[in-house]
């Protein structure tokens, strides 16, 4: 018997080496190189494709203008949030990778979508038994007769079932559990993940069937397996959120068929995930009484305006070094804003603990939230509540200047729709809105905000 061929792979970045070494020369990680068995397959194919079909599929060069895209119909997944993040539905023959922390709801999301789909769907699970999946499906309710469950991990067997069933869409939970006979190393290893993904890509492209893969993530938040996995697939989606909160956010990190700015919001309920179509109304608590330290920011996630509540607590520091902590907001940015307030608005925050929280357990990167953070901190520091009909949308610069934000008019209209009476924006934003009932307060410096609020 011929000697089995082995290669060394870095488990962190997927680089390949001919011999073992302590440090990966590509990504500089230590102790990540592992020997894996590789065996060149005789026929690296998703099925032993007959020669005749092979011939028909030989592709020829075409002029861009001659390529026909009119027939390119996307699969509508019946889930408005999922469609939005994908850029308008699943593209035939595309490979989508969905990553996320354990227990965040990846299996729930995809099973729920599979159950709602009006197409014949095959849900392949290497993680749970058919009974377990059925129990989950019963919790989620709306069940079509088009969803087939297969519990299998060997790709060759999966393809055999696919050939028999001819599904329109295939979901695989998860890529790390798959195993191909052509490679001898264990499931979840770099070479297995690479091989199984290659087989699935080949299958997807040849049959124009969209495939959705679930991927585990490592403890630092990356999708487990080689980095090239993300290069191989067409779309990389990330399902995130705080497990102790009910909101889950679906983002696209890479999308060959659409924008990566779009965002899907779900709420985890007893009976599966519910699409949140009116996020602004849910994320701001309509309180009766006004509380100090609360301010509402008019942010924008993708194309969607999102009103978010910011809570700040400023208290006298008990220990020598004041504590600063931020949930859902960049802690470095909080420190910067505090320094600006100290320098430009004369607030002596140096001896105060400052805690900041974005409600709903979501993380916001939109710089337009800055002004609401400033307002919340000032309000808590003075122990004076802001009117709950005020909202804010502007970035704060290092010199205390209030900077304009993109698409301010869309934010103003959303605030007006939700019944806010006043919105604070930068003086430098160009606003050509007419007939608005909301008062647009233009400010240019942090000092102006202090003046306007007292
Ligand atoms: P799951 O989809 O198994 O997560 P993942 O596949 O990302 O590991 O989701 C697990 C969590 O979701 C679990 O803790 C229970 C919760 N859950 C609900 O709250 N409601 C439901 O209807 C379902 C099915 C799950
Ligand atoms: Mg799962």
Describe this protein's structure.
One of its GO terms (biological process) is recombinational repair. Belongs to the RecA family. RadA subfamily. Keywords: ATP-binding, DNA damage, DNA repair, DNA-binding, Hydrolase, Metal-binding, Nucleotide-binding, Stress response, Zinc, Zinc-finger. Pfam families: AAA_25, ChlI, Zn_ribbon_LapB. The chain has 454 residues and is α/β, with parallel strands linked by helices. The protein folds into three domains: 39 residues; 203 residues, P-loop containing nucleotide triphosphate hydrolases (Rossmann fold), CATH 3.40.50.300; 173 residues, Ribosomal Protein S5, domain 2. Helices cover 26% and strands 25% of the residues. The protein is globular, with a radius of gyration of 26 Å. The structure holds thymidine-5'-diphosphate and magnesium ion.
Notable traits:
binds magnesium ion, nine-stranded mixed β-sheet, binds thymidine-5'-diphosphate, 26% helix, zinc, Ribosomal Protein S5, domain 2, 454 residues, 12 helices, single chain, Rossmann fold, hydrolase activity, ATP binding, alpha/beta, 21 strands, four-stranded mixed β-sheet, globular, 25% strand
Structural class: alpha/beta
Low confidence ranges: 49-55
Could you tell me the number of beta strands? 21
Would you state the CATH class of the largest domain? Alpha Beta
Bound compounds, please?
thymidine-5'-diphosphate, magnesium ion
Overall geometry comes to globular
Number of domains: 3
Share in β-strands: 25-35%
The proportion of residues forming helix, as a percent range, comes to 25-40%
* Quaternary organization: single chain
User: How many whole angstroms does the radius of gyration measure?
Assistant: 26 Å
Domain RecA family profile: 71-217
Pfam families: AAA_25 (PF13481), ChlI (PF13541), Zn_ribbon_LapB (PF18073)
GO molecular function: ATP binding; ATP-dependent DNA damage sensor activity; damaged DNA binding; hydrolase activity; zinc ion binding
Motif (RadA KNRFG motif): 254-258
């Amino acid at each position: 018997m011929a000697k089995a061929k082995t290669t060394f792979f870095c488990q962190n970045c997927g680089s390949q080496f001919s011999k073992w070494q302590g440090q990966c020369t590509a990504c500089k990680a230590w102790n990540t190189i592992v020997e894996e068995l590789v065996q060149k397959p005789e026929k690296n194919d998703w099925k032993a494709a007959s020669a005749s079909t092979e011939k028909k599929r030989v592709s020829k060069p075409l002029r861009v203008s001659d390529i026909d895209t009119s027939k390119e119909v996307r699969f509508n997944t019946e889930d408005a949030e999922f469609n939005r993040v994908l850029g308008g539905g699943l593209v035939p023959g595309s490979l989508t990778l969905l990553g996320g922390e354990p227990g965040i709801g990846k299996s729930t999301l995809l099973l729920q979508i599979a159950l709602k789909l009006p197409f014949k769907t095959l849900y392949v699970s290497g993680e749970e038994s058919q009974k377990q999946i059925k129990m989950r499906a019963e919790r989620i309710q709306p069940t079509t007769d088009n969803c087939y469950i297969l519990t299998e991990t060997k790709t060759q067997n999966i393809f055999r079932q696919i050939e028999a069933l001819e599904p329109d869409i295939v979901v695989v939970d998860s890529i790390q559990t798959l195993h191909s006979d052509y490679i001898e190393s264990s499931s979840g290893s770099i070479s297995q993940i690479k091989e199984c993904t290659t087989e699935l890509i080949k299958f997807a492209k040849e049959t124009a069937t969209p495939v959705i893969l679930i991927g585990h993530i490592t403890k630092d938040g990356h999708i487990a397996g080689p980095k090239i996995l993300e290069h191989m697939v067409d779309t990389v989606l990330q399902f995130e959120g705080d497990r102790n909160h009910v909101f889950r956010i679906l983002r696209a990190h890479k999308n060959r068929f659409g924008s990566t700015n779009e965002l899907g919001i779900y709420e985890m309920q007893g009976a599966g995930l519910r699409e949140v179509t009116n996020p602004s109304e849910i994320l701001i608590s309509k309180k009766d009484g006004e509380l100090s330290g609360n301010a509402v920011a008019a942010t924008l996630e993708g194309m969607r305006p999102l009103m978010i509540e910011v809570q700040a607590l400023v208290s006298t520091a008990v220990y020598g070094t004041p504590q600063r902590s931020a949930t859902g907001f960049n802690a470095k940015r909080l420190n910067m804003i505090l320094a600006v307030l100290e320098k430009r608005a004369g607030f002596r925050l140096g001896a105060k603990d400052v805690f900041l929280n974005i409600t709903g357990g979501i993380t916001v990167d939109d710089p337009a939230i800055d002004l609401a953070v400033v307002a919340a901190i000032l309000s808590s520091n003075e122990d004076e509540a802001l009117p709950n009909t005020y909202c804010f949308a502007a970035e704060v610069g290092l010199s205390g200047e209030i900077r304009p934000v993109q698409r301010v008019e869309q934010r103003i209209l959303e605030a007006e729709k939700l019944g806010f009476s006043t919105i604070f924006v930068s003086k430098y934003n160009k606003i050509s809105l007419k007939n608005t009932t909301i008062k647009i307060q233009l400010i240019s410096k942090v000092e102006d905000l202090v003046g306007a609020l007292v």
